[in-house]
Write a structure and sequence with these properties.
By secondary structure, the chain is of the alpha/beta class. It folds into two domains: 123 residues, Response regulator (Rossmann fold, 3-Layer(aba) Sandwich); 95 residues, Winged helix-like DNA-binding domain superfamily/Winged helix DNA-binding domain (Arc Repressor Mutant, subunit A, Orthogonal Bundle), CATH 1.10.10. Helix content is 39%, strand content 24%. The chain contains eight helices and twelve strands. It is elongated, with a radius of gyration of 19 Å.
């Protein structure tokens, strides 16, 4: 029997695909609503209390990326799994930067989609602290506002997720692969320096011209967010 507290919205214009997804999720005991075009999605999500949104990028009417942007601008934190065309790397990157929580390229295995929805649903059920603080740095996760010494710090969606990961792990060394798994949530080439690049960007915004320095490098391992010892 479906659990009314765990409702999934599937936004997919291909009706056969939408039907397959609905049946696979319902088989897991999840309540599922389906929309086939984009124009009604934003109000449905803002007022529908969904646990996860499965959102195709290519839709009649409003496209998926525009929908995602509008949701995040409205401070909607409902987890979003993007469905993308295979090979559309640019769209996936744009979607993740807009605040998507995960993506799945078509064609996909229904078992993988169900597993990813379950993972996002579990994450959404957690009740973490909504205001994180370290020294004079604060993060309001409800309004997605970051301040240091009272000054607003503008972050991209990916920078925000990285900072939130580090703040929730403050005082602990975060290995690069742990950061990848916690922030990027998709296949990642460990040979790239993407984590280091994003940490550098964060340092420029969080620590530049400010004391004390809060982001520290642990050579050969990863990064640590903490106040210097007194």
């Amino acid at each position: 029997m479906a659990n009314d507290n765990m409702r999934i919205l599937v936004v997919e214009d291909e009706r056969k695909t939408a039907s397959f997804i609905r049946k696979a999720l319902q088989a897991e005991g999840l309540a599922v609503d389906v929309l086939h075009e984009g124009d009604a999605v934003v109000p449905a999500v803002l007022f529908g209390r969904f646990s996860v949104v499965v959102l195709d990028i290519m839709l009649p009417g409003r496209d998926g990326l525009s929908i995602l942007r509008a949701l995040r601008e409205q401070r909607c934190t409902t987890p979003v799994l993007l469905l993308t065309a295979r090979g559309s790397v640019g769209e996936r990157v744009e979607g993740l930067n807009l605040g998507a929580d995960d993506y799945l390229a078509k064609p996909f295995a229904l078992a993988e989609l169900v597993a990813r929805v379950r993972a996002l649903e579990r994450r959404g059920r957690e009740s973490p602290l909504t205001v994180l603080r370290l020294a004079d740095l604060s993060m309001d996760t409800v309004h997605r506002r970051v301040q240091r010494a009272g000054a607003i710090i503008e972050l991209t969606a990916r920078e925000y997720r990285l900072l939130e990961f580090l703040m929730r792990s403050s005082g602990q060394v975060c290995a690069r692969m742990a950061i990848v798994e916690g922030v990027w949530d998709y296949d990642f080439d460990p040979g790239t320096n993407l984590v280091d690049v994003y940490v550098m960007r964060l340092r420029e915004k969080i620590d530049a011209d400010r004391e004390p320095k809060l982001i520290h490098t642990v050579r050969g391992v990863g990064y640590l967010l903490r106040e210097p010892a007194a």
